[in-house]
């Protein structure tokens, strides 16, 4: 049984440059919080980033849900906020196609993700070589999903973990189960108030994620952006996440 490692210890074994940056920000800000900015306008996105920026290690986007995306109006100010508050931009694109198509989806089209994202999520369903296109970015592989009835069973997760461990572009995984120490673990499906959303999402607490899963980063969406005061709730999740991390060491 592997022992839970501190962020300092992970700095020694997670070599990818994006893993190094995330771990350094976590230590500096005493935060393991990633806010999922699932809002549909640029104004809401930038207002949320301004409020939660000081408390997070990364802002997770689904850039394709914006009604008014514009490189200049959306991405430039978002990048400025990321610099101002020292957080990374994580595009939760969950690429799931052959390498050539992913290469096009990553760099072309409306969103030109490769021009601004520090890290992206990708399914590993298309196999090892499908991830070769994500040079100059960090990949977080989807190993297990949080939703009820997901097909990511133990066998799938084991095979997905092998790809994640061996591919040089991959430095982490999204999962609801433990993954090897060499990978950073990202856990969505975190909410202090709700158990689910009536649409298949299943929630756990930060405490569960750190003690049971030995996660490295918690991802919180509606628990923060739907609350009355996003700044205040980001701070609560940051503190809850940090206390749970320290308690799990
Ligand atoms: F890979 C996954 C997963 O297994 N579960 C998720 O919920 C990703 N997510 C994302 O985290 C999902 O697409 C949302 O953007 C976010 C969770 O949002 P919530 O509002 O906290 O439920």
UniProtKB/TrEMBL annotation:
<dbReference type="GO" id="GO:0006207">
    <property type="term" value="P:'de novo' pyrimidine nucleobase biosynthetic process"/>
</dbReference>
<keyword id="KW-0665">Pyrimidine biosynthesis</keyword>
<feature type="binding site">
    <location>
        <position position="221"/>
    </location>
    <ligand>
        <name>substrate</name>
    </ligand>
</feature>
<feature type="binding site">
    <location>
        <position position="60"/>
    </location>
    <ligand>
        <name>substrate</name>
    </ligand>
</feature>
<feature type="active site" description="For OMPdecase activity">
    <location>
        <position position="94"/>
    </location>
</feature>
<keyword id="KW-0808">Transferase</keyword>
<keyword id="KW-0456">Lyase</keyword>
<comment type="function">
    <text>Catalyzes the transfer of a ribosyl phosphate group from 5-phosphoribose 1-diphosphate to orotate, leading to the formation of orotidine monophosphate (OMP).</text>
</comment>
<feature type="active site" description="For OMPdecase activity">
    <location>
        <position position="92"/>
    </location>
</feature>
<dbReference type="GO" id="GO:0004590">
    <property type="term" value="F:orotidine-5'-phosphate decarboxylase activity"/>
</dbReference>
<comment type="similarity">
    <text>In the N-terminal section; belongs to the purine/pyrimidine phosphoribosyltransferase family.</text>
</comment>
<comment type="subunit">
    <text>Homodimer.</text>
</comment>
<dbReference type="GO" id="GO:0044205">
    <property type="term" value="P:'de novo' UMP biosynthetic process"/>
</dbReference>
<feature type="domain" description="Orotidine 5'-phosphate decarboxylase">
    <location>
        <begin position="32"/>
        <end position="237"/>
    </location>
</feature>
<keyword id="KW-0460">Magnesium</keyword>
<comment type="function">
    <text>Catalyzes the decarboxylation of orotidine 5'-monophosphate (OMP) to uridine 5'-monophosphate (UMP).</text>
</comment>
<feature type="active site" description="For OMPdecase activity">
    <location>
        <position position="97"/>
    </location>
</feature>
<protein>
    <recommendedName>
        <fullName>Orotate phosphoribosyltransferase</fullName>
        <ecNumber>2.4.2.10</ecNumber>
    </recommendedName>
</protein>
<keyword id="KW-0210">Decarboxylase</keyword>
<keyword id="KW-0511">Multifunctional enzyme</keyword>
<feature type="binding site">
    <location>
        <position position="222"/>
    </location>
    <ligand>
        <name>substrate</name>
    </ligand>
</feature>
<feature type="binding site">
    <location>
        <position position="146"/>
    </location>
    <ligand>
        <name>substrate</name>
    </ligand>
</feature>
<feature type="binding site">
    <location>
        <position position="38"/>
    </location>
    <ligand>
        <name>substrate</name>
    </ligand>
</feature>
<keyword id="KW-0328">Glycosyltransferase</keyword>
<comment type="pathway">
    <text>Pyrimidine metabolism; UMP biosynthesis via de novo pathway; UMP from orotate: step 1/2.</text>
</comment>
<feature type="binding site">
    <location>
        <position position="201"/>
    </location>
    <ligand>
        <name>substrate</name>
    </ligand>
</feature>
<comment type="pathway">
    <text>Pyrimidine metabolism; UMP biosynthesis via de novo pathway; UMP from orotate: step 2/2.</text>
</comment>
<dbReference type="GO" id="GO:0000287">
    <property type="term" value="F:magnesium ion binding"/>
</dbReference>
<dbReference type="GO" id="GO:0004588">
    <property type="term" value="F:orotate phosphoribosyltransferase activity"/>
</dbReference>
<comment type="similarity">
    <text>In the C-terminal section; belongs to the OMP decarboxylase family.</text>
</comment>
